Fold these 2 entries.
Entry 1:
Amino acid sequence: ILTVAKDFDFFYFVQQPAEDFSIHGLWPNYNDGTYPSNCDSTNSFDDSKVSDLESVLQKEWPTLACPSGDGLKFWRHEWEKHGTCAESIFDERGYFEAALSLKKKANLLRALEHAGIRPADGKFHKMEQIKDAITKGVGYAPYIECNVDSSGYHQVYQVYQCVDASATNFIECPVFPHGRACGNKVEFPSFSSASSRDEL
Ligand code: 5GP
Ligand code: 5GP
C-alpha cells in the first residue's frame, strides 16, 4: 500500500475581535493537532501580487499590533509562515482571497447580532451564548481563545473556525487548538473611546 503524505488536512481560520472582527490568519493544520510552518523559503511575500487588494486587506486584515503598521509585515508573516504550506491549493494572491472570502462567509458580527450580542457594548457576555450564536450562524462550533485584561477579566482574544482542505467550506473541527480557554463570563476588548482612539 502506498500512502502519500498530505501536506495538511484542514485549516484554522482565525479572527480577532476589533470594531468588526478582523483576520489573523488561515493556517494549514494536521488532524493530530500539529501543523507545518514556513514551508517554502523560495516563495516569499511579494506585495505587488496583492497591491490591488491592499485597501480591502487594510480593512479586513489589519495589524492590531502596537504601534500600528500598514499591515504589510503582518501579511508577509502570515503568507510565509502559513500560506506557503498550502501551495498545492493556492498561490499568494489566492491565499489572501480565500481568507477574505471566508471572512464574508463567517460574518461573525452578524451571527452575534442575531443573538442580541453586540461586541461593542462594553458588557460582559456568557461564553455559552457567544459559542451558540456563532454555531447557529456558521453551522459549526468555533473555538474561542481568551486573554485577561488589565483588571483581570477574561476577554475574547481570537475565534478559530475550521475549514476544509480546499479552503472553501467550514467544517466540524477535527481537533481544537490549545489556546488559553475562557471563563463563563467574558468581555470583548474595547477598541474605541478609552484606548486607541484617544491617541490619534
Ligand atoms: P500562540 O503561541 O500565540 O498560541 O501562537 C503563536 C503562533 O503559532 C500563531 O500565531 C500561529 O502562527 C501558530 N499557531 C499556534 N497554534 C496553532 C495551531 O494550532 N495551528 C496552526 N496552524 N498554527 C498555530
Ligand atoms: P502567528 O505567528 O501567530 O501567525 O502571528 C503572530 C505574529 O504576527 C506575531 O509575531 C505578531 O507580533 C504579529 N502580528 C502583527 N499584527 C498582529 C495582529 O494584529 N494580531 C496578532 N495576533 N499578531 C500580529
Entry 2:
Amino acid sequence: MLSHSRSMKVTSINPRTGEKLWEFRPTSARRLDEALAKAKKGQEAWWGRTSRETRVEVLREMERVFAKAKDEVVDLAYLELGVPKRSIAASYDSAMRGFQHYIRRYEAFQDRPFPLDPALWLNTEASIRYEPLGVIGHIGVWNFPFWQTMITTVPALLTGNAVLFKPSELTTATGLRIAGLVHESGVPEDVYVPIIGGVEVGRRLVGSGVDAIVFTGSIGAGMSIARRAGTRPLILELSGNDPGIVCADADLEQAARGVATGTFSRAGQVCIRVKRVYVHRSIAEGFIDRLVKIAAGLDVREQVGPMIRAEARDRVHGLVQDAVSKGAKLLTGGNKAFGPGYFYEPTVLLIKDDSLEVIAKETFGPVCSVRVVEDEEEALRLANDSPYGLGATIWTKDSGKASILASRLQAGNIWVNEWGRSLTGGEYFQGCKCSGIASSQERLGLFLRKKSVILHRTPEPRPSWF
Ligand code: NAD
C-alpha cells in the first residue's frame, strides 16, 4: 500500500517528470455530510421518479459523451499516471464496451413473480423485486483511473443508485473530469457527486451514512473498511499476487512474451500482474533466457512507463535489494532508471524460496520473481500457498491439463496462454481469499438488492393464525 499524503492538499504529480501538476482542496467533513444528504434525495428521484427506460437513455448518452471525450481523458490520465498512452487508450476502449453490455444485461433484472404451489398458498402471490442499494460510497484507485471507475459507475447508475465518488488522490484530475462528463451526459449532480481527498477522506466516507461501499485498493485498507462497513453491502477489489505456471509443454516463446507483458506492462502496477512464476525444470533454461532477453530489451520510457511515485519505486527497489541480499539471483535490471521521473528497470529474479518478501507479498512494480519447480504439483502447491486469490496464468499446449489446473488454482480469474484481458465491462472480475469478496453474482446484481413480497389477496385470516 502506498502511503498517501495526510496533508491538507491533494497533489497531482507527473510521474514521468516528477513535476507538480495541480493541487486540490479536500472535501471537508461538512461538505461530505451535505453531499450525502443531497445524494440521498437525488437517489430517491433517480430511482423513484425516473423510469428504467430513461436511465437507459441517459446511459446511452453517457456512452456517446465518453466516446467523444476519449482523447481528452486519455491525455489527462497519461499526465497523472505516466504509463504508455496506448495502454491507457486500450483500457479506455475496453471500459467503453461495458455500456452496451450492462444495458443489455439489465433486461434480466426485472421484477418477477415467484411461483407458489396453490395448494399451500391459497389466494396468494409472490414476487421478487430488484431495488438499488441507495447511495454508494465509491473509493477509487489510481492504476486504471478510467476502467476501474467505469466498471462501477455504469452498473451503479443504471440500476438506480447514486454515487459519492472519491477518486484516488493520485489521479484526482482524471476522476473529476470523469464526474464532469457523467453530469454532461444528463446524470443529475446530486446523483453523482465527486469527493476529493486521500485516506482520511476515504475513512470519513466509509464512516458516513452511505448505504454501500465499493472499494478498490490494497488489502490493508480493504480489511480496515470491511471492519467498519458493518452489515452494509461491500464490493472489495483488492491486491493480488498472481502466480504464473509454465508447464513442461508450454510454447516457450508465447509463455515468455506473455509473462513479460503480464509482469512489466504499466511498470508492473497492475493488480493482476504476473508476480511470481513457477517454471518446470525441463524447460526452465529456455524460458528464463527468453524472458530475460525480452526484459533487458524493453524501452523503459516508451514500453514500461514510470512508477506512480518516488516512494513506490524506493519500496520496490528495497524489496529487490532485500531479495538479492538473501540469496536471490538478479538476472537483469535491479536499478532505478537514469533521468527524471520514477522509472525502474524491468527486473528478473531467480528465487529458491517463497518466504522472501518480494515473492510472498504483492510487489507492485516491474519485478518478476521466477522459481524453478520439479513438476506441476509443486507449482500448484506453491501457487496456492498464498493468502491472495485474485488471478493466475497457466502456460501449456494441453487444454485438458489447463482445465484441471484452472479448477485447482485458488484464484478468481484464470488465464490460459493469455494474460490480462477481462470479460466485457469487468464482468465476473473478482478475487477470492484475501483479494476480494467472492460472489456468484454477475456484476449488475452486486448493485441491487432483492426484495421478496408475499401478497395475500383475500381479507380472511389464515387458518393457523391466533
Ligand atoms: P490504497 O488502498 O492505498 O488506496 C486506494 C484508495 O483507497 C485510495 O482512494 C485511498 O485514498 C483510499 N484509502 C486508503 N486507505 C483507506 C482507508 N483506510 N479507508 C478508506 N479509504 C482508504 O491502494 P494503492 O496502494 O494506492 O493501490 C494499489 C492496490 O490496488 C494494489 O494492491 C492493487 O493490487 C490494488 N488493485 C486491485 C484491483 C482489483 O480489481 N482487485 C484493481 C486495481 C488495483
